Amino acid sequence: MAEGTDGIVTAAVKSQEEGLEFLEKMLEVAQPERVFGQPQTYGEYTIITASEAVAGLGYGFAVGGGEGSMEDEEGSGSGSGGGGGGGGASSSRPVAVISVGPRGVTVEPVIDATKIMLAMFTTLGSMLLMLARMRSGSRD
Amino acid sequence: MENVYTCTGSKRASIKNSEDQEEATVSDRAGPVQRRTTTGTPVSLGDLTITPEAQVLTIRLPTSGIVWNRPSAVFIEQGDRVARLPIIDITRLAQVALLSLSLCFTIAALIGFSGQRRAKHG
User: Which label site among A103, A129, B14, B77 has the fewest CB atoms less than 10 Å from its CB?
Assistant: First the structure.
């Protein structure tokens, strides 16, 4: 059993090292260059995009083993096992455009109408649900 | 809505350089949650120098982590004058405003509902 457990522990340590490596790579998102784009020139105007970047990562694993014998049977048995899993996600969303032109420097926000509308409908829905519950509660 | 920059200031504002930021970061490394402001590489466009500024929130646990990096401002440098243009995330503001409205309404409704029940039963 010891050999099997050792193998699992070695694999787990390797997985942890790989996980830490991924975690370090993820932290590169923290650099300012990740949120500000390279300047692009179009005629008299030069624009720089500014985006929000979010990244998350998590992993975990477990190993275990055991040995024992049955009371009414001869011999003994042992076993070991391990498992792990992980997941991550990253997203980026444009926030503003910095424009340099004859008028000077302007920061123009990028408005995501879909997100705002979704939030508005969710808010309205929750309000209506609450009102409906209050009305039905006051009738009882 | 837009912020237009015109170079009218007479005093030169100070832009925190990347080295200062890095020193501040090292001292914060003990905790799992870090919040810091970083400045990127300045970009020169004609007589203007544009320096981006970003705010980073890092939550780092032994087997997981989250990094949230958002642009916060740009520094416009022209000659001796420096101006800071904030970058406002309208979408996020609207989302937070709507969520706050929803929470306020829920709390008010719950208070009103419990008051009604108390009046009925007591």
Answer: B14
Strand segments, DSSP code E, in B40-117 are 43-45, 48-61, 64-78, 81-86
Domain boundaries, chain A: 2-109, 111-140
CB atoms within 10 A of CB A35: 27
Question: So what's the pLDDT on residue B97?
Answer: 95
Give the A:B interface size as CB pairs under 8 Å.
Answer: 173
CA A30: distance to chain centroid?
Answer: 14
Looking up tokens 């416009």 gives B76
Output the CA–CA distances (angstroms, integers) from residue A93 to A15, A24, A51, B3, B62, in the order listed. 31, 22, 5, 20, 28
In chain B, which residues have their Cβ closer than 8 Å to the Cβ of A46? 45
Average pLDDT in the B103-115 region?
84
Q: Which residues in chain B are contacts of A62 at CB distance < 8 A?
A: none
Query: What ipTM, to 2 d.p.?
Result: 0.71
E strands, A24-74, are 40-42, 45-68
Residue of A nearest to B59 (CA): A56
Q: What pLDDT does A5 receive? A: 65
